[in-house]
Amino acid sequence: MRNLKDLVALDFNFNRKSLIKDLLAGISVAVVALPLALGFGLTSGLSAASGLTTAIIAGFLAALFGGSRFQVSGPTGAMTVVLIPIVHSYGPSAIPLLGLLAGLMVIGMSIARAGNIINQIPWSVIEGFTVGIAFVIALQQLPLALGVVRAKGDRTLPVAFQTVKGAFETGVNWQVILVLVVTLIVKFSYPSITRKLKIKVHVPASFLAIVISLLIVQIFSLNVPNIGDIPRSIGHWQGDQIATSDVGHLLWPAFLIALLCAIESLLSARVADGMVHAHDSEKYQPNRELFGQGLGTLVASIFGGMPATGAIARTSVNVRSHAETRLASIFHAIVLLFVALVAAPWVSHIPAAAIAGVLIGTSYRILNPASIRESLRTTKTEASVIILTATSTLAIDLIWGIAIGICLYFALHWKKRNKG
């Protein structure tokens, strides 16, 4: 019981100055998180509303009960990779039970102190995993980017190939392509423009790209799909869809989701601590972080959302926005709730291709080519692990990618030790 009390103990140390910083950081993260939440909800095979619900509920609970000061949680590209084949096989109605099982498993990991073990995954494996995820996220956007129906299947590369093939066979919608290109141009050019013009008012590039794309679609009456209606309420009870007879079928998928939730969340928290050069006393608590993530996934999934994890992109924005406490992540969830309750009718008109452009841009940021080039120049051993982990993640799946990367890492280091 003492372990459990340690996991749920809340710590809020803030003053007026940090409160203002956290509020501004929370608003900044919410602006970035909105298109990502909508996009990952659509990509997973559920809905934009599911993504937004997840960002609000899981984002709030994981921030409140988690073990990191800077972590921002919600739907992520890595989680959609696992969810797509599950939704394809079992349908959206399986998500409440799936999230319940996965959330309980992650909470179980936290009580068993498994966070200390997961936290020891070699950094080269994490690098390769991140590279693979970046490519997977980009390829997942092809249906929205081309304005076509996603090809059948659950393997990223074959599905991407068949989706592109189908787009050319049925005819490419050039208006959709135009929206995609405009979104990418704004997203990548706006930061450099602000630096050259020395603009001090910070507007996230993703947010501006979506606004400009939406204005172009409305002004020129372009015939492009939008993300669809978003209910002006959050948190519909889905517990009545849980059928205990399906538990046996969903135990393995739930375990994969729980493992991914644990790994990605701890990775994101590690990255945040590295960005702020946290001292030992300030570093995140891995087991408490697992408790918060498990609780967030459990509650979000049975209230209309989906499984969630700590999000590297949003957490990085939170740090760069000078957040000081976990209140920044809580404010981010509150701002998104306001958007859902007040601005849902406007948000529903956002072009789906603009969401695809934002996520493709996000995958490029996650990939970080400069960092990857630097990592590949370190040693042949580390480079081999990165390349094989990335390739396995892309060609097979996330969990196999990590497992293969870990095996190669220890095999190469064992061989190197024996040679020495």
TrEMBL record:
Any Pfam family: Sulfate_transp
GO annotation, biological process: transmembrane transport
Recorded GO CC terms: membrane
Subcellular location: Membrane
Transmembrane found in the keyword field: yes
Membrane disposition: Multi-pass membrane protein
InterPro entries for the chain: SLC26A/SulP_dom, SLC26A/SulP_fam
Main subcellular localisation: membrane
Domain (SLC26A/SulP transporter) ranges: 19-389
Range of residues in the leader sequence: none
Keywords carried by this UniProt record: Membrane, Transmembrane, Transmembrane helix
Keyword Ion transport: no
Transmembrane segments: 23-42, 48-65, 97-116, 128-151, 171-190, 202-222, 250-269, 290-313, 325-343, 350-367, 387-412
Record protein name field: Unannotated protein
